[in-house]
Fold these 4 entries.
Entry 1:
Amino acid sequence: MDRVAVYAGSFDPVTYGHIDIIKRAASIFDRIIVAVAHSTEKRPLFTVKERVRMLKRVTCNIKNVTVDDFRGLAVAYVSKSRARVLIRGLRALSDFEYEFQMALTNRKLNEKIETIFLMPSESYSYLSSALIKEAALLGADVSKFVPSFIEKELKAKLKRRIS
Ligand code: ADP
């Protein structure tokens, strides 16, 4: 039976940190589903459709990766996808408390699903989508953090927001 894992998140937008985690996960599991959450709490810059399109483009060379979106609980999506594993990325210590709480809550919701944490290369361990959006808004060059087509879309979107 295929070992399928779901990497769920906002990916607003996808960064080299996320891509690092996707590659690591794809080398361990038979199939990875990168799942973009329709979050009602966060106010994302990019629509779910845009984020899915970006993720498809950055993963098009990784054979065992597919991209999807989901509403509601991540654990419900994982079990609907016939997967048993939820992948999350762990950066600095600051991620730990939130991720720990979420993993244990998810285990209470569905004890069959395991959360597995992967650490990115240390060069990406400080990267966050939020920081990149803020830096791009202030005119910074973010080409070290996201692929160039995403940097372009980011700048275009922020320009539209300001004007
Ligand atoms: P969420 O809104 O679910 O936190 P994110 O898109 O911010 O969604 O992140 C999805 C997952 O990827 C989370 O587990 C987060 O900790 C992880 N992640 C985000 N940025 C990085 C990075 N630079 N390196 C490794 N993991 C990351």
Entry 2:
Amino acid sequence: MEELKPKSLNFLEEIVQADLAAGKYPQGIFTRFPPEPNGYLHIGHAKSICLNFGLAQEFGGKTNLRFDDTNPITEETEYVESIKKDVAWLGFSWANELYTSDYFETLFQYAVQLIEKSLAYVDDSSAEEIASQKGTPTAPGVPSPYRNRSVAENLDLFQRMRAGEFPDGAKVLRAKIDMSHPNMHMRDPFMYRIRHVEHHRTGNAWCIYPMYDFAHGQSDSMEGITHSICTLEFDVHRPLYDWFIEKLEIFPTHQYEFARLNLSHTVMSKRKLLQLVNEKIVHGWDDPRMPTISALRRRGFTPASIQNFCERIGVAKRDNLIDISLLEFCIREDLNKSANRYMAVLDPVKLVITNYPEGQTEDLLIENNPEDESTGKRAVPFTRELYIEREDFMVDPPKKFFRLGPGLSVRLKGAYIIQCESFELNEDGTVKEIHASYIPESKSGQDTSGIHVKGTIHWVSIPHAEVAEVRLFDRLLIVEDASELGDDFMKFINPESLQVLDKVYVEPALKEAQVEKAVQFMRKGYFCLDKDTQDGHLVFNRTVTLKDTWAKQQK
Ligand code: ATP
Ligand code: MG
């Protein structure tokens, strides 16, 4: 018998396994996914979702969905709803739906405790003054003149900040740590700032808002999060995360960092994605060219393909760039097994079968999915006049062209072998119409003709054809790695990322296609019906081509 090899664990799985083995968490582990509701989730977030929910599933634990809503300026309820939809669609259920804003009162009390311990103070300095006092990584900072205010004065001022007595920017609450600490985040970081803005959940109840560093760890602690997983850039925040928890003497949660996912030919920050939406480079957050979960769903990606992608890229400790073709490979692999096959002609030219009776329709039975017999067969109407793909005919074909040309024979998928007799040209020299004869004994499945042909092409019966619009997508950016480009990424937008074909002919069964459920257009790729389909006007998105054509083009 084959030996069962244990699956190799990533570094986070190793940590969890060791913690459990040491008996640290008899109740099981607790993780959380903490998005800020300031945009739609992207594939990078999917990585974090799969990791957090995946660890809890694997080791027996739970995962909270916590909206990190401490910045009222950029956050909206629309984003909250989209995030919930996306996480659920990816296939995960959260133990609790929570909001950092629900902790505002507790966080305020925590801040009061730190003031009482002389570990926090109200600073009247301007943002510029504070920045200039911060020092540099090699030079120590200068203490603020307000650093030694009495506990009583700090308590009074902090209460009055809350009461709305001061305008934005007039005061901040800072932790009193060490102005010469080698880690700049430990040089008396901000805990609270004044912002007279309405919050999407708390309305006008608050005009002071906690900073990320003061809110995040305390929220983790309140929820009893055992493994707080975030991306590498928070590595330098960890000493501060630990400092607050230690000084407040609350549940000791631990932060672990992993490398964020960077994907080629796209950008992956909500702020940049919002810029693409606002500047109308794309038609919204779910434009199928976007790397958002909602765009991938609209484009025909499945939750399984995204989970599989996240599994394959693994969990790294160092930043790297993943080629977008790996994501495409994952959806192709999934759809090859699950998508039904149909015929659609993207660039049509008319083919007349001269010896086929006029007015006759034959229902040919074609397998829905050769990879899955249980999907059965469907009837596809065959008639004398068909559309075929323009590229499947050549007036002057080279030797190894196994499709149609004068005198050449080919099989029509699921139907008959035909031989080309003649063709007509338009005035501009393009092919207008092709004439061929069919061999009645060559019917697929009951072929007694003894003729062997090398090529098979797809077709659609003209009287039965449905016209459709098809949208083809390409890379959003023409540059591979945009992660270091900053705002310059806008200079690298691919002007040909969207191509619209407005006269595609598809077989009648595709009238029943469902939005977001991908099907295969034989020889052409995977496609799915778009939500823009209306009143019989079919719109399809190409999910992905059948083969990786991008790598070839680049050579
Ligand atoms: P963005 O810059 O896109 O807004 P963010 O990190 O600010 O990203 P949050 O909403 O704060 O977004 O993130 C929620 C969680 O998702 C965090 O734990 C964050 O570390 C994680 N995350 C965000 N982007 C990525 C990424 N590219 N790869 C892996 N995890 C990510
Ligand atoms: Mg953010």
Entry 3:
Amino acid sequence: MAHIHRTAAAPIAPSQITPERVWLTRRRLMGGALTAALAGLAPGAVSATAEPSGAKLAYTPNSRYSVRERPNSFEDITTYNNFYEFGLQKDSASENAGSLRTRPWSVAVGGEAEVRGTFNLEDLLREQPLEERIYRLRCVEAWSMVIPWVGFPLARLLARFKPTSRARYVAFTTLYSPAQMPGQRVKVLDWPYVEGLRIDEAMHPLTLMVVGLYGRVLPNQDGAPLRLVVPWKYGFKSIKSIVRIDFTATQPRNSWNIAAPDEYGFYANVNPRVDHPRWSQASERRIGAPLFAARQPTLPFNGYAAEVADLYRGMDLRRYF
Ligand code: MTE
């Protein structure tokens, strides 16, 4: 798998590179807590085989927006994935995503905005100081992880396109390339994968555009080179490998809602009180936890209620699921 990450290394600007000793010191500081947390676990519960790879990024840790839980291992985060463009099994993306070419990469911007056009990803990234935020990711399949993302607030990117007063939603589109994404040769979803947010959700300070994890350039299977992360929503909202952003006046469609409208809505806010028609959303399994560990209760808005519940005041969250 290492060669996959290294191919993405070349185009990173020197200013984006963290000196190794800075990163190592940070890791060492965290090491104490890690060792303590691991002391109670069975040997082998956390793998030592996969280490973070890819080019190092320069970033500032954002503790205000980071959870205090222990992050999942790099191996868990990069081998247990949902990325149907590369297959349906959890390890399909780590095995198949090497065929995705992430540079050069451009993002087309259209719709209700003053600044539209096609932008080179490098040019967009040069304007964005990067932060590390440790977020919970809660998948609609009732498993969860804790991931140290590197990225920048989506709001800062959207502002540069000067959305008009008619822009009420933001729509996102993943790359469509059956040659690079073998899963798109099978019609499990209506390709390309699309997602959307209400504009106030898109502008919320927790909503992150992600370009890395564990301090390094994002591995392809995690949505390189640019993905969305909306931590209070089920994981399917966090669309990967984005090539288009459109500002719209009406609610955009989203892939899982198109595929199964009774099971997946537009809002997809994590809600332990509203079950999926085929399974409970009241609890979740933390990936990487020892087999004997209990499931943990799922929190409203995935634990981010204090920050985001106001966005939905007066809305029936059972109807707008
Ligand atoms: N984006 C695209 N383009 N295709 C996908 O299949 N899966 C979604 C989301 N983004 C998906 C996607 C789902 S269901 C989840 S849970 C998260 O990505 C998983 O992100 P991870 O693999 O980095 O943990």
Entry 4:
Amino acid sequence: MKVGIDKLRFASAHQYVDMVELARARHAAPDKYTIGIGQTQMAVIPPSQDIVTLAANAAAPMLTATDLAAIDLLIVGTESGIDNSKASAIYVAHLLGLSSRCRTIEMKEACYAATAGIQLAQAHVRMHPDKKALVIGADIARYGLNTPGEPTQGGGAMAMLISADPQVLALSTESAVLSQDVMDFWRPLYHTTALVDGKYSSNIYIDYFQDVFQEYLIKTQTPAADLAALVFHLPYTKMGLKALRSVLPQVTETQQRDWLRHFEYSRKLNRRVGNLYTGSLYLSLLSLLLTDPNLRPGDQLGLFSYGSGAEGEFYTGTLQPDYQRGLDLGLPQRLQRRQRVDVTTYERAFNGQLAWVADDQQTDWQSDPHRFVLTGQQNEQRQYLDRQA
Ligand code: HMG
């Protein structure tokens, strides 16, 4: 039985900052940000969006009444939690109108959690082929203003519907996993921004990729040449390019050119959003599927998921005949329609997130065009609004 990604859809903020402008404000060479790091725009998440609203905004438009009735598992992967106890998925299930018989949980392991969610969802659907699972990776990447990590911020949510006979990608049951205690990036409970050893984390990422890539090829006896394209977790798009270059000597020059060409499509949309932690690999997959004219049904795609701390997984998926039907076809236009804001406005949004205090607070949600918004906090409870309710 084929099980995999039936539909996928992305949501982020309605505004972005231009990386050349940000580089100038930080007295950095623009080429460092646009070429050295590989980002051209960065999503500016307003205080009226958090992981709950991003997740609901990503998923709601793609779910039909039939989907809603069949979903009995919702997993939100995130490292931008809003509560130490209650799962963000409960709020998301409520906003989406999922059944109260749906199992609803939040998962954490840095940027890797959405992949763990997909693997659990895949196993669940294999046991219950008439059911569907919704997996959402939702995050806001925050390193701080004027930090080396700043140009690798961003945010958004990728929603993926996992089902039998999927429209987009049939997933392999085999995968290769590596999990070890590594201090490359972490965020203690008292921090709102990540702590990171940037260079170390980039080296560990490549080590992990090489390890799980080789392990997968050996374990499944797959020749590297069988993989039409490789798709990466993209904390910044140059990171994936570095990892890809590290395995190019394993294939012919023609295949090297093919992999590099596919890679350029796979980073197109990530270049315009920035890091979105758990959803990043899957935005790259969507970018490849939406923009690359050289893909064919039947192509086998390799997926590399990496979460600091650290856990990595390599697995594959086979492109299905009608894969375009399950894609978020309007995404390039939505990104195009976003409003460009200056660095001062970006900094105000960055500093204006709801404070981690008990006081009642309000956001400027009226200026946020999304269906689901966070209006503030009252009596220590976050307040969500569905404009269509
Ligand atoms: P930095 O020290 O400011 O940058 O931090 P740099 O000096 O290393 O320069 C970056 C690149 O720009 C270099 O290229 C320079 O040569 C180049 P490279 O040698 O790496 O190929 N450069 C230029 N290129 C063209 N023209 C110029 C120019 N100047 C310099 N004029 C760093 C960069 C990525 C370390 C920093 O932004 C950072 O710490 N980011 C956050 C950490 C991160 O993203 N790590 C990635 C791996 S870990 C991961 O993926 C997990 C994660 O998503 C979290 C999770 O799992 O939850 C982060």
